[in-house]
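task queued by scheduler; priority normal; single chain, no ligands, no partner chains; default sampling; output format set to structure tokens
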Amino acid sequence: MQTTCDISLKESLKAEEAIAYLGFGNRNTLKEWRERGYISYYKLGNGTRGITYSRKSLDKFLKSRYVE
């Protein structure tokens, strides 16, 4: 039996989950946003495998880019 998780309920998202949550982008997009300070993230351990993204930060970033 496969367990599913609603990513809209998670506070911290892995890269693939963040991409699915946003509905666009890729790992390079997330890396660029990280490096430019656009989004908050958590880094646990070495390398990029331990990076997770704050769902609230992703929402805040998208809201700041909204054009009417």
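post-processing summary
- Residues 10-64 form one domain.
- The beta strands are 12-13, 41-43, 51-54.
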